[in-house]
Amino acid sequence: MAKFFSRILIILFISTIFIIIYLSYFGVETDRFDSLIKNRANEVNRNVKLDFNKTKIHLNPLELNLVVKLKKPKVLIRGSEVNLSKIDLFLALKSFITSDFLLKRSEIAFVENDIKDLVKISNIFLPKIINKKLNKIFNKGTLEGEFVIPFEPDGSIGKNYGFSGRIIDATINLKKDIIIKNLTTEINTLKDRGVSVIINKGTIFDLEISGSKINLKRENRDIKIQNILKTKGKFTFEKVKKISNLLTLNLAGLKDISGFADLNTKINFDIDKNFKIKNLTYSSSGVADNLILETKEIKIIKKYLPLHNSKMKLSDIKYDFKPVESKSSQQLTLSGGFCYLENNEDCHSFNIEHFYHIKNKKHKIKGKVTLTNDEILIPRLNYKKEKYTEASLSFDTNFIIDKYYDILEFEYTDLILGDSNTYRIKLQEVKLNKKFELLSLNSIYVKTYSDPKGLILNNDFTIKMNDKLIINGNLFDARPLLKSLYKKNERKTFSKKFKGDLKVNFKEAITDSKDDLIKKFSMIASIDNGSYVKLSSVGYFSDNEMIEMSLYQIDKDKKTLQVVSDRARPFIKNFEFIKGFEGGKLEYESTTSKKGSNSNLLVTDFKVSKVPALAKLLTLASLQGIADTLSGEGIRFASFEMKSKSKGNVINIEDALAIGPAVSILLEGYVDKGKTVSLRGTLVPATKLNAIIASIPVVGDILVGKKTGEGVVGVSFKMKGSPKDIKTTVNPIKTLTPRFIVRAIEKMKKKKKEETK
Q: Is the Cβ–Cβ distance between 187 and 164 less than 8 Å?
C-alpha cells in the first residue's frame, strides 16, 4: 500500500513538473482573455486600440504568475499603426480561475519601427508637452526595443516603467544648427527610474561622438540630464562658435581656429515642465593637435615681442576645463606647444592654469612659457634678447579686467651663458590699477645685459617697499629714461592713490658711453597723489664734474624742475637731428602746471660735428668753409639759450639763440617730439655779426672794436620735416632784424661782464 501511494506521489510530482515545464515553454492557447484584454487596453487610453490574432498562456514559475502572450500584436494610436514583435501580459495566478484581469505588468517589444513610433508609444505614459518636443527632436531613423510597463492594483499604470532598445541611423534635431546625424544607440532604463543612452555611432558638427553616454532621470517635475559627450575629429571656427553659443562661452579676441581634437565633455542640466534648460554645468578634457589659431592683433605685444604673429600653430595640446568651489568658479588647464605660422619650426612650450570666479568676474592665471625661439625687447631697460637664447617666463596673477591687476609673482629668466650667468627680472606682490599704474609692491629685482652675447651688464638693482620705496643697486641704465624726457608718455608710473617717500642709490648709472657714467647717484623724493612733489638728487661724472636735479612745489598746481649738469651730452644726444655733440655744460629749468610747461635751457661751450640739417643750411647759404668745418672738426658754440613752452608732445620754441666764433643763429618754431621739426630763423657768420655790432656807436667800440664787413650780412631760413629728414630753404638778406641784434648784444654784454670779473 505504501508503495502504491509512493508511486502515485512520484507520478503526480513528475506530471506536475512536466506540466510546469510544458506551460512555461509551450503554453496553452486560449481566447478566454481576448475581449477582456482589448477592453482593458482601451480603458487605459481611449486613443489606443490593441489588436491581435489569439493568445497563448504561459506559466511563470519564478514569479508565480501567468504570462499571456499575444500573437501578431499591433497598436493603433490615433489612427497610426505600430507593429509590435510581442506583447506579454503578466497576470496573477488566480486570474485564470476567477477570470479577473489582475494585470501586474506588460512587456511590449518592437523591431525596426520608424523612430517616430517611439513618440506614438510613449504617448501612453509620458506628458503631452514632452511628447510634443520628442516629435520635433526625432527626425528619422529606426527604433527597436522593449517597454516594461508596471500596473497598480487598481489597474492604473505604475511609475517604475522601463525601456531597453536601440536607435539605428537616426537624425535628431537638438536645437537649431545642432543636429546629431547617423546616430546609433543602446537605451536602457535604470533602477532609479532613469534612462541610460550609450552612443555607439553618430556625429555632431561632423565630429564623431561614439562612446558618449546620456543619463536621464525624472525628479519631481524636472528631468535631470547628465551627458558624457566624446567628440573626436576635425573642427572649424564656425563649429566652435555654435558650441560656444550653446555653452555661453566668450570668444572675444578670437578670429579663427581649426584643427583636430579628441575631447570628453560632461554637460549636466535640468529640463523643467516647460521644456526649458536650467542649472547648466559642464566640464571638458582631452587633447588637440595641429590647431591653427588666429587672434585679434594686440599692438603692444609687438613692442616687446617683435616676432609675434597673431596667427599661430598649436600642437600636443592637453586641455582640462571644469567647475570648482561648488560650481562658483571655473578652472582651465592648458599645456602644449605653439609656434608662429610664418616659422612653424621654432616652437615654444607652455603650461597655463586659469581660474575664473563667475560672480565677481575675478581671474587668476598662473603658468610658465618658454621663449627660447623668440626675440624679446624691454625698451625701458634697454634690453634685447636674441632669438635662440634660452629663456622662460613664469607668472602668477590675479585681476579683474578694467579694475585692478595683482602680480603675485612674475619671473623672466635668460640663461644666455648657462646657469652660471643667469639674468632675470622678478616681481613679487606688485599691485596695479586698471591703467597699469603702480598701487603698491613688495619687491622687484632686475639684472639684464645690453648686448646679444650677454657680456655687457647694464642693469643690476632691486626695488623694495616697506615704509618707503627704496631703489638700490650696482648699475642702472638711464638711457631709456633720458630719451623719454623728450617724449610725452600718457601712462603714469604711479597711481593717484600712491603716496610715500622714495630713496634711490646707484653705484653707477649709464647715460651714454663709458665716459659719461654717473657714479654715486643718489636721490630722495616725496610722492603724493601719484606725482612727485619734492625731489633732490646728485651724481658725479668725475671728481670735478657732477649733475644735480631738484624739484619743488610752488603751489597746488605748479612745480619747478631744475637740472644742472657739468656734462650736457647725455641730455642733448637724444635729439635725433643732432649728432656728434661734444663738451658743454647744461642748465635747465622748467615750471609745469596742468596747462603745460615753461622752460629755459642754457648750454655753454660745446661743439657739434654731425648735424645734417645745419650742414645743408650752411651749404645753401654759400658758407662752404664753415660747412666743411662742421663735417670735420665740428663748429664750436659759446652758448645756446632757448625759451620754450610745452603742451603734450609739442615744444613751442619762442626764442633760441646760438652764439659761436664761426656762426650765430637765432630761431623760433616748434618740435612735435619724435614726429616733426618746424623752425625758422636767421643765420649770420660771426665776422658779419661783429661788423654790424661794431658799427653801433659806443656799444660797438666797447664790444668788438673798429671792424667792418662786406657783402651779404646773413640768410633767413626755414627747416621742416621729420627729425631724420628735415627739408631746408634759405633766403639771403642784407640787414639783420633789430631783434637779432638786441639778442646778440645782450648775450655779448653778459659774456663780457663774466670775463671782466
A: yes
